[in-house]
Specification:
64 residues; mainly alpha; 3 helices; 52% helix
């Protein structure tokens, strides 16, 4: 008998809106931290006043 899988990754797909937003912010901060190790992006982030610590919502992507 074939079973139907409802979720690809239930640990992420079944999060509440608040939990999902917290995950998105954490991952965005991590991405900015990694990108900051590049001279190119470090300069751009500095010009824009961007650092991982100022990211507080997924909407902050617009500041990038």
């Amino acid at each position: 008998m074939k079973t139907t899988k409802v979720y690809w990754d239930e640990s992420v797909e079944a999060l509440s809106r608040d939990q999902l937003e917290a995950l998105q912010v954490r991952r965005l901060r991590e991405t900015i931290e990694r990108a900051s190790s590049s001279v190119f992006y470090a300069e751009r982030f500095k010009e824009a006043g961007i650092s991982p610590s100022v990211i507080s919502s997924p909407g902050d992507v617009a500041r990038l």
